[in-house]
TrEMBL record:
Name by which UniProt lists this protein: ATP-binding cassette domain-containing protein
Membrane topology term: Peripheral membrane protein
Domain (ABC transporter): residue spans on this chain: 6-247, 268-470
Source organism (scientific name): Aquincola agrisoli
GO CC, alphabetical: plasma membrane
Keywords: ATP-binding, Cell membrane, Membrane, Nucleotide-binding, Transport
Record-level Gene Ontology MF annotations: ATP binding; ATP hydrolysis activity
Chief place of localization: membrane
InterPro entries noted in UniProt: AAA+_ATPase (IPR003593), ABC_Ni/Peptide_Import (IPR050388), ABC_transporter-like_ATP-bd (IPR003439), ABC_transporter-like_CS (IPR017871), P-loop_NTPase (IPR027417)
Length: 470
């Protein structure tokens, strides 16, 4: 029988005596995979951070973690730190927080190859360049993380997690923000770790990824394991009501949108828009007109300019060619953006309640309106006393959605607004987004890589990398 690479026994996490994760146990041998499903905030990312030994100070871990035969107390994170990158690696959920914004991508990756992978400084740059070329980032070797798209940053962070050659890899939402091609490539990369004699723990909300990875599946809710077993068996015949609800809420089952007639003067009109990034052409010849209650879905491969188009429409970036006309009776604050990376859109040291109250005060909204959105999105009031880094990515994404809906914009550019949410929360969040947009007569521009979400939302479509159809 092959050796056990990772064993977790009775792993728990508490804050101030309140349990966040309860008695989780599993073990993985060489070549095996475990996928974690569950609602946003259920403790999936906490589990990964506890295994790494990288929990925030206020949290306390219990239980034991065994890596490659060496057992340590879960609370003794310092004992596992020498294993980071070499034996135990984590691809975190937020690439913006994993990459150094002041260092170019290729040198960052080369440093990992040299200092963690043992390649040496002479060989490391060539290894980094080859790895970046393999993941379609050869054009980005001289760029900083903030100069690439969210999907590109995700791929760069994954490359760095793999560069040290760790046999135990934990990947937290590794396909978030990736198009279908790179989602499949990421799954292949995780499977390659297994073929090389490693094991993989994958946290995902994407049921297609769980299906493709196979292995074992564990479903968490409120910090507890409610179901586990072979992935194909659980997905085909779930026993627990929550697992059934997760599968039923998959976007493939959402109803199609009803057609809508254009209303009044366009909120925004664009003609002949073109934009380049350095030597790369992102888009050109874009013509569109968005009226109240229009829902335009923008799709295309990572890095093709979808987010940039939204920034141009909102007036955050200038176009290289063409013109944008916004309805003259609308103030600048009527054009709002829901960011792809929610962590980067909140003041890091301000508590979430303060950030929300500042927005409500700035736009003359009652606090009860904010609370109504938070209630619809199932955001507990207890989270508002925390800072952005102290909540999960999915929880922060829901709070960001409540914040922007409080403003009641005339045009909302939503950049992958549900990518960090489980299917149930995703369906609830999208329903609230569409309902609020309809009530306030807002136009919506939605960026998504999910074809099923696009089909359920779009009244117009714009595809990059191929002829646009609107």
């Amino acid at each position: 029988m092959t050796e056990v690479l990772l064993a977790v026994a009775g792993l728990s996490v508490q804050v101030g005596g309140r349990p966040l994760l309860r008695e989780v146990s599993f073990e993985l041998r060489a070549g095996e995979a475990l996928t974690l499903l569950g609602e946003s905030g259920a403790g999936k990312s906490l589990l990964a951070q506890a295994v790494m030994g990288n929990l925030p100070r206020a949290l306390r871990a219990g239980g034991r973690v065994t890596i490659g035969g060496a057992t340590t107390a879960a609370a003794d994170g310092a004992a596992r730190r020498p294993l980071w990158g070499r034996a135990l690696a984590l691809l975190p959920q937020e690439p913006a927080l994993a990459l150094d914004p002041l260092a170019r991508i290729a040198p960052q990756l080369a440093e990992v190859h040299a200092l963690v992978g043992g390649a040496g400084f002479g060989q490391a740059p060539a290894l980094a360049a080859r790895q970046l070329a393999d993941i379609g980032l050869s054009h980005a070797v001289r760029r900083y993380p903030w100069q690439v798209s969210g999907g590109m940053a995700q791929r760069a962070a994954a490359a760095m997690a793999l560069a040290g050659g760790a046999r135990v890899l934990m990947a937290d939402e590794p396909t978030k923000g990736l198009d279908a091609h790179w989602r499949a490539r990421t799954v292949e990369t995780l499977q390659a770790v297994q073929r090389r004699g490693g094991c993989v723990v994958t946290i995902t909300h994407d049921l297609r990824v769980a299906q493709a990875l196979g292995g074992r599946l564990m479903v968490l809710r409120d910090g507890e394991v409610v179901e586990q077993g072979e992935a194909q068996a659980v997905l085909a015949a779930p026993r627990h009501p929550f697992t059934r609800a997760l599968l039923a809420a998959d976007p493939a089952h959402w109803p199609m949108p009803a057609p809508q007639a254009a209303e009044g003067e366009p909120v925004v009109r664009a003609q002949g828009l073109a934009k380049r990034f350095g030597e790369r052409r992102l888009f050109e010849g874009i013509d569109l007109a968005l009226h109240s209650r229009d829902r335009l879905v923008v799709q295309g491969a990572s890095g093709t300019g979808k987010s940039t188009l939204g920034n141009v429409l909102l007036g955050l970036q200038p176009a290289d060619a063409g013109v944008v006309r916004r309805r003259p009776d609308l103030p600048a604050t009527a054009f709002q953006k829901l960011y792809q990376d929610p962590a980067a859109s909140f003041a890091p040291h301000a508590r979430l309640a303060q950030s929300l109250r500042d927005v409500a005060r700035r736009h003359g909204r009652a606090w009860s309106q904010v609370q109504a959105c938070l209630d619809r999105l199932r955001v507990p009031e207890s989270l508002l006393g925390r800072r952005p880094a102290e909540v999960s990515g999915g929880e922060l994404q829901r709070i960001a959605l409540a914040r922007v809906l409080t403003v009641q914009p005339a045009l909302l550019f939503a950049d992958e607004p549900t990518s960090r949410l489980d299917p149930v929360s995703q369906q609830e969040a999208m329903a609230l987004l569409l309902e609020t947009a309809a009530q306030t007569r807002a136009a919506l521009v939605l960026v998504t890589h999910d074809d099923d979400i696009a089909a359920a939302v779009a009244t117009q479509r714009l595809s990059f990398g191929e002829a646009a159809a609107a």
